[in-house]
Specification:
The protein is of the alpha+beta class. It has six helices and six strands, in the order H-H-E-E-H-E-E-E-E-H-H-H. The chain is 33% helix and 31% strand. It is globular.
Length: 175
């Protein structure tokens, strides 16, 4: 189990620290796939993933990107990482915000990655986040008129003592 965690840490190091596409791919089986669930970006197999990592993911990561770990669960063939992902939208980010020009706004969003391993390497990644929360923070949707939250949802993950039920209370006050 510890080696699954170590392999995942190595993979993340190649993506975010050394920013090395080929080293990232060496941590993955040949037909691995990555799926950013909210926007269906990623790829299947080394050829698609090479293009994705080299053209869309690694070079389109804002320089102030920060990941704050919240929890990690390790099973016999999976790791589930919960974190808060934070950045300022200063560059194009096709992998997360396809077609959205940089807004220069700060984003803080809870994110979950489920990593499956096979034959001692990563077989797939399913990455989940609340795209509505991201779009609220970028000023692209109006949280005042929709039942969505912005950065406060990530803040609540980091600090469970923050208030709950505010959207329900707002809805009750509007009726």
């Amino acid at each position: 189990m510890d080696n699954l965690s170590a392999l995942w840490e190595e993979h993340v190091k190649y993506e975010f620290e050394t920013r090395d596409t080929e080293a990232t791919l060496r941590t993955m089986i040949e037909n691995a796939y990555v799926n950013h669930v909210p926007v269906l970006t990623g790829g299947v197999g080394h050829d698609q993933l090479r293009a994705f990592y080299a053209e869309r993911f690694i070079p389109q990561m804002p320089p102030d990107t920060k990941m704050t770990p919240v929890s990690r669960t390790i099973g016999s063939d999976r790791v589930v990482d919960e974190m808060v992902f934070e950045f300022t939208h200063t560059i194009k980010m096709d992998w997360m915000l396809p077609g959205v020009a940089p807004t220069n706004r700060h984003v803080k969003v809870a994110l979950v990655v489920i990593i499956h391993f096979r034959d001692g390497k990563l077989a797939h990644e399913h990455i989940y986040w609340d795209q509505a929360s991201v779009l609220v923070q970028l000023g692209l949707i109006d949280a005042a008129t929709l039942p969505v939250a912005g950065a406060e949802s990530a803040e609540k993950v980091l600090n469970p003592s923050l208030p709950s039920n505010q959207l329900m209370e707002r809805a009750l006050n509007e009726t």
